[in-house]
C-alpha cells in the first residue's frame, strides 16, 4: 500500500514561474517580463522562455496579476432558482457577457446549497462585484448580501444600500398591459396563478393584474400560488379550474403558464376559445409551436447590457452614486389569448 507521501510524489505538480526560470537559466522577473506585453526582454531569451513554458504547461497566474492591478476579475453571480428556464437563460447570457469583459463569473445556485454556507463561501474570494438575481430570491437573503460591502448589482429586485446598483423590469406595468389586452378582447372572469409570496417579481406582477381589473371594474375571481415551475402550474391550474368558472387565466411566469396550458387541454378546454392563458418572461419555450404562448417579454438582453454597463462604471469609480435602471416590458401576442 502506497503511503500518502509516495502518492504526492507521483502526482504531477503545476509548473511555476520559478520552474521556467530555472530551466531557462534566467531570473523569475525575466519570465514575468516575457509574458507582459510591451515589457523589454531579449528576443532570444523571450523565445526560450516561451518554449519552456509551453513544454511545461506553465501559465501566468491571472488572479495574482489582477490583484496586483487592484482587481481580481472575479464576479460572483448569486442565483435564486436555476431550475427556472428564465433564470437559466439569463445566467447563460450574463456569463457570456462577463467573459467578454474579461471577468470570470463564480456561479452560486442558492437552491443547491445551504444559503448561509453559500454566503460564507462568497467572502472567501476577492470579488470585484456581486451580481444578485434578486427577483426570485427572498428579501432576507437579498438584504444580507447587500451588507457584504462588496459592490453589488441587484437584478430583479430594487435594493437600497451603499454601492448597490439595480436593474429591474417594470413587472407591474407588464402585467397591467397584458391584463388590459385580455379585457379588450372581452374577457371578464379572471383567475391568477401567483409565484412564491416572498418573491418581489410575484408580488409586483399580482399588483399589475389587480390594477388593471380594478380600473375595468372587475374582481379577481380566484387565485392559486405556485413555485414558478411547470409542474406547480399544472397542479394549480387543475385545482383552480375545477372550482371556478374562468375565461382568462393570468400566470405569474411562463413556466407556470405552460403547465396551465397542459392542464386546460387535459380538462378538454379550448384555448383560447374557452379560456385565455397568458404568462410573463417570454422564455424560449413560449414560442414553441406546441404552446405559442401570449406573454410579456422581460428582456434578458437589455438587462444584461444594463448590468455590464453598471459594473464597468462602478469599477472605474467605486464611490459613484448608486444607480437604478428600470426596463420596459412588452406584450408578445401569439395564440393563447
From TrEMBL:
Keywords, in A-Z order: DNA-binding, Transcription, Transcription regulation
GO molecular function: DNA-binding transcription factor activity; transcription cis-regulatory region binding
Domain HTH lacI-type: from-to ranges: 15-69
Protein's UniProt keywords contain DNA-binding: yes
PROSITE patterns linked to this entry: HTH_LACI_2
Pfam entry (one): Peripla_BP_3
PANTHER family associated with the record: ALANINE RACEMASE (PTHR30146:SF120), LACI-RELATED TRANSCRIPTIONAL REPRESSOR (PTHR30146)
Protein name according to UniProt: Putative HTH-type transcriptional repressor ExuR
Originating species: Ruegeria arenilitoris
Amino acid at each position: 500500500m502506497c503511503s500518502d507521501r509516495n502518492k504526492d510524489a507521483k502526482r504531477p505538480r503545476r509548473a511555476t514561474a520559478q520552474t521556467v526560470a530555472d530551466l531557462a537559466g534566467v531570473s523569475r522577473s525575466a519570465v514575468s517580463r516575457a509574458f507582459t506585453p510591451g515589457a523589454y526582454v531579449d528576443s532570444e531569451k523571450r523565445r526560450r522562455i516561451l518554449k519552456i513554458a509551453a513544454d511545461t504547461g506553465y501559465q501566468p497566474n491571472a488572479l495574482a496579476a489582477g490583484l496586483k492591478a487592484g482587481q481580481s476579475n472575479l464576479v460572483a453571480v448569486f442565483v435564486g432558482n436555476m431550475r427556472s428556464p428564465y433564470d437559466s437563460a439569463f445566467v447563460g447570457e450574463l456569463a457570456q457577457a462577463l467573459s467578454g469583459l474579461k471577468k470570470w463569473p463564480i456561479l452560486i445556485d442558492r437552491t443547491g446549497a445551504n444559503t448561509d454556507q453559500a454566503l460564507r463561501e462568497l467572502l472567501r474570494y476577492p470579488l470585484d462585484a456581486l451580481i444578485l438575481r434578486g427577483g426570485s430570491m427572498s428579501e432576507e437573503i437579498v438584504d444580507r448580501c447587500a451588507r457584504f460591502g462588496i459592490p453589488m448589482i441587484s437584478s430583479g429586485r430594487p435594493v437600497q444600500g451603499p454601492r448597490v446598483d439595480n436593474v429591474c423590469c417594470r413587472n407591474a406595468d407588464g402585467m397591467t398591459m397584458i391584463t388590459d389586452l385580455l379585457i379588450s378582447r372581452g374577457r371578464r372572469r379572471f383567475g391568477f396563478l401567483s409565484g412564491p409570496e416572498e418573491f418581489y417579481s410575484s408580488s409586483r406582477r399580482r399588483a399589475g393584474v389587480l390594477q388593471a381589473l380594478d380600473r375595468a371594474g372587475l374582481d379577481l375571481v380566484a387565485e392559486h400560488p405556485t413555485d414558478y415551475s411547470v409542474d406547480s402550474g399544472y397542479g394549480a391550474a387543475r385545482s383552480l379550474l375545477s372550482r371556478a368558472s374562468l375565461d382568462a387565466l393570468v400566470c405569474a411566469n411562463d413556466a407556470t403558464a405552460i403547465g396551465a396550458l397542459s392542464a386546460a387541454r387535459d380538462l378538454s378546454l379550448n384555448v383560447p376559445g374557452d379560456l385565455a392563458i397568458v404568462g410573463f418572461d417570454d422564455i424560449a419555450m413560449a414560442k414553441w409551436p406546441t404552446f405559442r404562448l401570449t406573454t410579456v417579454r422581460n428582456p434578458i438582453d437589455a438587462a444584461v447590457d444594463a448590468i455590464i454597463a453598471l459594473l464597468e462604471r462602478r469599477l472605474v469609480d467605486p464611490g459613484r452614486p448608486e444607480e437604478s435602471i428600470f426596463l420596459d416590458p412588452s406584450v408578445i401576442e401569439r395564440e393563447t389569448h
